[in-house]
Every structure is written in structure tokens, then in C-alpha cells.
Design brief:
This protein is an alpha+beta fold. The protein has 3 helices and 3 strands; from the N terminus they run E-E-E-H-H-H. The chain has a 3-stranded antiparallel beta sheet with strand order 1-2-3, covered by helices on one side. It is elongated. The two termini are 21 Å apart.
Length: 90
């Protein structure tokens, strides 16, 4: 049986040191089939650029969402059901 987690993070931009997460998603895949999914919008804690707002219409979707530090526990609980090798400890 081959199992893995596919993780996707969307951010406010491309600069990893200054940009913030706006969405976190994870899929549990077992033997090539999606078994479960986790998707959450995250308030980035900073203004979103006009370009990003117009591309994704995020302004209203993110209003009132929780900050990443407040949802990280839920994401970790979702992915921890899989065993990670020593090269990928959680």
C-alpha cells in the first residue's frame, strides 16, 4: 500500500521571507485514491496586493478567517495519521 499526503499552500506572493499563507490544503492519498481532504482559508495578517485581490477575489473570502498560527494544529492533526520516515519528521 502506497500512502502519502499532498500539501499545497497558497500565499500572498512569491517572496518566502515576507509573504504570508492565504490557504492550506492537503490530500490523503492511499493506493492512488484520495481518501480525505483538508482545505482552509487563512487570514494572512497583512494587506493583500491589488493584483492578487483582482486575480483571486480574496479580499471578501479572507475577511474574518483565522490566522495561520490558529489553524496549524488542525493541519498537523490531519497529516499526522501517516507515519513519516526519519528524513521527514513532524
Amino acid at each position: 500500500m502506497t500512502s502519502y499526503i499532498a500539501l499545497d499552500l497558497e500565499t500572498t506572493g512569491l517572496e518566502s521571507k515576507t509573504e504570508k499563507i492565504t490557504e492550506a490544503a492537503a490530500l490523503k492519498v492511499v493506493d492512488g485514491r484520495i481518501q480525505d481532504r483538508f482545505v482552509i482559508l487563512v487570514h494572512p495578517g497583512k494587506p493583500i496586493s491589488e493584483k492578487l485581490r483582482s486575480l483571486r477575489e480574496l479580499q471578501m473570502r479572507l475577511y474574518g478567517q483565522r490566522l495561520m498560527e490558529n489553524v496549524m494544529g488542525e493541519l498537523l492533526a490531519f497529516v499526522k495519521v501517516f507515519r513519516f520516515g526519519p528524513q521527514y519528521p513532524l
